[in-house]
Amino acid sequence: MFFFVSAAALADWHADARPKMGTEVSVYFWHEDELQGEAIIEEIFAEVDRINALMSTYVESSRISDINRRAADEPVVAEQELFQLIRRSLDISVLTHGAFDITYDSVGQHYDFRERRRPDDATTEAERQRINFRYVTLDKAKGTVSFEQQGVRINLGGIAKGYVVERGGDILRQHGVDNGVVTAGGDSRLIGDRRGRPWMIGIRDPRKDGEVAISVPLEDEAISTSGDYERFFDEDGIRYHHIIKPSSGRPVEGVHSATVLGPDAVMTDALSTSVFVMGVDEGLKLIGCLPDYEAIVIDAAGQIYYSTGLADPGADGADSPEATATPGTC
Ligand code: ADP
Ligand code: MG
Questions:
Q1: Domain ranges for the chain
Q2: According to the model, what pLDDT value does residue 10 have?
Q3: With bands split at pLDDT 50, 70 and 90, how would you rate the model's confidence at 260?
Q4: Is 98 in the pocket of ligand 1 (CB under 6 A)?
Q5: Does residue 158 have its Cβ closer than 6 Å to ligand 1?
Q6: Which residues pair with 296 in a beta bridge?
Q7: Quick one: fold of 63-147?
Q8: pLDDT at residue number 11
Q9: How remote is the CA of residue 80 from the centroid of ligand 1, in Å?
Q10: Which H or E element spans position 46?
Q11: Which residue in 184, 251, 265, 325 has the most C-beta neighbors within 10 A?
Q12: Residue 1's pLDDT band (boundaries 50, 70, 90)?
């Protein structure tokens, strides 16, 4: 009989966090069964490893590294899953007028934030010419990727973590979990609520380590934050960080963090990077055109901006100037 007693006593939150994909991946969920909870955790981390082995440019043997080595010379077959994520990335490039561009990596590859290494001006200028998502051609029938120019490289760093947490969320749901969170760095997939109350998601103060600037209550949603404090070094008063403006080939200035929330973590991840690149005005205009998505941007002066859906929840949005201005700009 004792196992009935212990099973009931062990119904609980399950939690684990491990260093993966150059960041921390964590899971937190409610499950009635201790052993099954453990197995679910292992399944999710195994899935993270599988995706990383396929999509990381830091893994020599990954399919994406193979594409980067060969796609300027010949079409390279991409695994179906990778093909789809590249295709979605290119669609988001069109949507964001090139702010989101996975070919940023021709410049991006020259940065090493731990070693404080950055490209000199001549290198940036030369490599910047190779940033253009239109240089990436997909053949749907053959499932191949080709590059139209030598030196083009792709990197899914701005979208892959969203994909990973979305997959983690799928695994939780497949096992009947109704309340949980999967997080990879700045990207989180929330399932349900925290058993009767919303999840409280803190958005970091971009300049005060460990402090939270804003807390938002959320249920059943995805949320992603891009910040200039994630991977960076400061040199002569300039912050060199990991989000590159495709048009200049240099780290974006003017924004300290961009947060996007909505139904799909793949989108919130790519859109948080995009809004960061586009800046407050353009970024919030874009989000205003996407009915399911909202954003919170903190600029270089520490000022906080909200998209129209969050800005004034009590007001009648239809009469506000933002709400009437939006459709014309979409
Ligand atoms: P994090 O990696 O901290 O979650 P983001 O989601 O904002 O942050 O992704 C930043 C990553 O996106 C960078 O580390 C880089 O790999 C990639 N990246 C940088 N600039 C761009 C860009 N303009 N378009 C697409 N991806 C980018
Ligand atoms: Mg992102």
A1: 2-48+159-325, 63-147
A2: 55
A3: very high
A4: no
A5: yes
A6: 259, 306
A7: T-fold (1.10.3980)
A8: 67
A9: 22
A10: helix 34-55
A11: 265
A12: very low
For the cut 50, the answer to whether the pLDDT of residue 231 exceeds it is: yes
Strand runs labelled E in the chain:
12-20, 23-31, 76-77, 136-139, 144-147, 180-184, 187-191, 199-204, 212-218, 222-227, 232-235, 238-241, 244-245, 250-251, 255-262, 294-299, 304-306
The Cα–Cα gap between 188 and 162 comes to: 7
Structure tokens at 205: 């103060």
* Predicted confidence (pLDDT) per residue in 3-26, tens digit: 444 444 456 999 999 999 999 999
Between 112 and 324, the more confident residue is 112
From ligand 1's centre to the CA of 6, what distance in Å? Answer: 45
- Into which CATH architecture does domain 2-48+159-325 fall? Roll (3.10)
* CA–centroid distance, residue 330 to ligand 1 (Å): 25
pLDDT confidence of residue 111: 97
Say what the pLDDT of residue 230 is.
Answer: 87
Per the listing, tokens 């409280």 go with 200
Any atom of ligand 1 within 6 Å of the Cβ of 186 = yes
CB neighbours of 178 closer than 8 A, spacing ≥ 6? 30, 191, 192
Q: Is 317 helix (H, G, I), strand (E, B) or coil?
A: helix
**Ligand 1 atom nearest 93 alpha carbon:** 24
Cα radius of gyration rounded to whole Å, the chain = 21
